[in-house]
Amino acid sequence: MSNLRKDLNTKGKRLFIARHGETIFNLAGRIQGNAAHTPLTQRGFAQANEMGRALARYLENHAVSDDGRGEGYGLQLVASDTGRALQTLSVVCEHINLDWHQAAADVRLREIDMGEWEGSYYHALEGQLQVDRDRSLFLSQAPGGESYGDIVRRLETWIAEQSFERDMLLISHGMTSRVLRGLLTGREPLELIGAPIADSLPQGSLVQITDGVETIVHLGAGESEKA
């Protein structure tokens, strides 16, 4: 594994990080990975709306006086290039008056690659896919899929490229966003998976990370993540 980023300075800028809303694969108990562009469910849209409303309230109550960018608070928009992440971002953007078309989609923010298991029902992989249910973590690497170390490496390259000149809204995925939060808050690698990882939060949750410190902006009511 590569060396973990130790410089947690974001120049005082705020990174708002969330996972996409519930999808039809989440509802059906199927593994998504990245091959299938699965749309949000009604519950998924509701979660995105809740996050959007919560972020709008938060930005209004914690305005940055010297931002100078007017309506929308000058947030930089970033997301995984998967349909479910971009769909979630579009809904959140409606609440904060930002143009979704300005978003940068990045493949490095995709979910953990589940290889040959993508599209499979979880119950069909009983005996093959080991899960730490207390931590909501996969303990088995899928055939042809990624390890948590692979996620760390691609996220480290993404972090290294960031100039942190503006506050950012970022929509990613369950496992990937937890590793990203772990990196940005300087967590030590969890021996079980060999990578830093933040605590699992219910789907529909939104956090803020600034200079290595994480704050929960909105705690959703959804289930913990599945890939």
What's the short version?
By secondary structure, the chain is α/β, with parallel strands linked by helices. The protein has helices at residues 24-28, 42-61, 83-95, 148-160, 174-184, and strands at residues 15-19, 76-80, 104-106, 131-132, 137-138, 168-172, 206-210, 213-218.
Q: How would the blueprint of this fold be written?
A:
Layout: E1 15-19, H1 24-28, H2 42-61, E2 76-80, H3 83-95, E3 104-106, E4 131-132, E5 137-138, H4 148-160, E6 168-172, H5 174-184, E7 206-210, E8 213-218
Parallel strand pairs: 1-6, 2-3, 2-6
Antiparallel strand pairs: 1-7, 4-5, 7-8
Care to describe what's here?
- This protein has a 6-stranded mixed sheet. It has a two-stranded antiparallel ribbon with strand order 4-5.
- A hairpin with a 2-residue loop joins strand 7 (206-210) and strand 8.
- The two termini are 22 Å apart.
- The chain has a single domain (15-218), classed as Rossmann fold.
- Helix content is 27%, strand content 15%.
- It contains 5 helices and 8 strands, in the order βααβαβββαβαββ.
- The radius of gyration is 17 Å and the shape is globular.
- It has 227 residues and is of the alpha/beta class.
